[in-house]
Specification:
The chain has 18 helices and ten strands. The protein has a single domain, classed as 3-Layer(aba) Sandwich (Rossmann fold), CATH 3.40.50.1820. Helices cover 38% and strands 12% of the residues. Helix 11 runs antiparallel to helix 12. Helix 16 links the parallel strand 8 and strand 9. It is globular. It has a ten-stranded mixed sheet with strand order 1-2-3-5-4-6-7-8-9-10, sandwiched between helices.
Length: 516
């Protein structure tokens, strides 16, 4: 799916898609409707109608009252109230938590940059102090940086349906025979039923269209006539939908680790599968080139052997409150996390070696990095709610299972994991009422789209397609491995200069700009 952002806990990187954010939808909150079961039928409503329906106006929000954050004395915290249902703004509301990082002392900022780290569902407030050091120093001196917890996440009315991240992380990504459902279907079905039972209105309101409307409320509360925005991974979906809804409110916008917004879930899985496989082969080659690769002289062979062993005989559960056995699903999940933020997970090889020797706890720890936020809270419920509420069509369990087997036949190492990662939670999720399937923002100032040649999470093809969806956008390519430029190549001076010049002048670099 992804637009999901892979967060990086305990290290200076965090993340992105990791998820892929697909199509934006406006799900009417009152009576979150739709059969649970994943029929695979497209959502009702005319394509492209969801975001642009006429909605009642509401009074502007109050200016943000900033106070020093309790645990981050260099940051300022505030709140912004938004309607739960923009169709009925006079009813229930949600309070969004917002954080501001003022430019360093002695600097003279010229503007405000609003930042979203992706997910969907990742806390922008928790990740902001971790990622601040990755922004170019010249950029930090010129901008205050503001982030927030989107609705249903972090400290902004979090959606909690009781879904176990361990259960989803451990789901086998491929059925054992044709015509069988995606193995995680029972867990995804339970999640859909639980969210509909526990928090129907909130779960139905988690859409990129409503997130974009919330972003505009934040703009108003900041006192800005136009917004400058930096989005990672799923944040590129949020930025694109915002630009489609509010083109006259865009000042400058960078979409880093771009998602192919108009691709279906199936298309996104097929785009991501070869990118994951390519990144894993690169990892094997890099490890084998070391004088003492922890996986031996044949790291690919070691990986294959471990995957086969885990498929036949899962390792004992880590315990300590986690009763779920460690499986090949954990191996694939942990591997995608490591490939997304290379260099930030030095324990990955050690986790593989430990699993070979019968200890699956380190592997489970890494797989949960992709399923939980920095503070350990689960991302899975709001992540899948947003993903599936946005998607124009939900493949059924058997269709998703057959796709996984087909991908595995072509890309046997890890490619098939892209199916579960992209669409798993949607096989049993209610179909949205109005899914957006054709987003082409126009009338915006020039927008910068960034894609990595070796991104396993949001492949370069997604950035190429997204840049073409705008009437005015420029694609910048970073030649490197990992998810998004900011997380994986922030020290690249060529990219630092490109990003800083664009945000300070509004002018795109020459067509075909690449940094290596």
């Amino acid at each position: 799916m992804r637009r999901r952002s892979t967060q990086s806990r305990h290290r200076a990187g965090g993340a992105g898609r990791g998820i892929v954010a697909l199509t934006a939808a406006l799900a009417v909150v009152a009576g979150w409707a739709g059969p649970v079961g994943g029929s695979g039928h497209p959502a009702s409503g005319p394509p492209g109608a969801g975001v642009h329906v006429s909605l009642p106006s509401e009074p502007p929000p109050s200016p943000i009252s900033w106070t020093t954050c309790p645990t981050e004395p260099d940051l300022q915290c505030g709140t912004v109230s938004v309607p739960l249902d923009y169709g009925h703004p006079d009813r229930a509301s949600i309070v969004l938590a917002v954080t501001r990082a003022p430019s360093p002392a002695g600097a003279h900022p010229t503007g405000t940059l609003v930042f979203n780290p992706g997910g969907p569902a990742e806390s922008g407030n928790l990740i902001l102090p971790v990622l601040l050091g990755l922004f170019p120093a010249s950029l930090r001196r010129q901008f205050d940086i503001v982030s927030f917890d989107p609705r249903g996440t972090g400290s902004s009315e979090p959606l909690r349906c009781g879904t176990s991240p361990s259960v989803l992380a451990s789901a086998d990504p491929v059925p054992t025979a044709p015509g069988r459902p995606l193995p995680g279907t029972p867990a995804f079905t339970a999640m859909a039923h639980s969210c509909q039972t526990r928090a129907s209105a909130l779960a139905g309101s988690l859409t990129s269209a409503d997130n974009a409307r919330d972003l505009d409320r934040i703009r108003q509360a900041l006192g800005l006539s136009r917004i400058s925005f930096y989005g990672l991974s799923y944040g590129t979906v949020l930025g694109t939908v915002y630009a489609d809804l509010f083109p006259h409110r865009v000042d400058r916008m960078i979409l880093d680790g771009a998602v192919d917004l108009n691709a279906s879930l199936v298309q996104q899985a097929e785009q991501e599968a070869p990118a994951i496989e390519q990144s894993l082969h690169h990892f094997f080659a890099s490890c084998a080139a070391q004088s003492a690769c922890p996986l031996g002289a044949d790291p690919e062979g070691a990986f294959r052997a471990l995957a086969g062993s885990l498929a036949r005989h899962p390792l004992p559960a880590p315990g300590a409150g986690d009763p779920v056995p460690v499986t090949v699903g954990d191996l694939d999940t942990a591997t995608l996390f490591d490939l997304s933020v290379p260099g930030f997970t030095p324990t990955y090889e050690a986790a593989l070696v430990a699993a070979v020797h019968g200890n699956g706890a380190p592997l489970r720890f890494l797989s949960l990095e992709l399923m939980t936020d920095i503070d350990g809270s689960p991302l899975v419920d709001p992540l899948w709610a947003t993903t599936c509420n946005d998607a124009g069509a939900h493949p059924g369990p058997v269709g998703a299972g057959n796709l996984a087997r087909a991908v595995q036949a072509r890309l046997p190492l890890i490619g098939a994991y892209s199916v579960e990662y992209t669409m798993g939670g949607c096989v049993a999720w209610p179909n949205p009422r109005q899914a957006l399937v054709d987003v082409h923002p126009g009338r915006t100032p020039p927008v910068m789209v960034i894609g990595n040649t070796g991104d396993p999470n949001t492949p370069l093809v997604g950035a190429q397609h997204l840049a073409g969806d705008f009437t005015s956008a420029g694609l910048v390519v970073w030649k490197g491995w990992g998810h998004t430029w900011l997380l994986s190549g922030s020290t690249d001076r060529c990219m630092q200069g490109v990003v800083t010049r664009y945000l300070t002048t509004g002018h795109l670099p020459p067509k075909g700009t690449r940094c290596a």
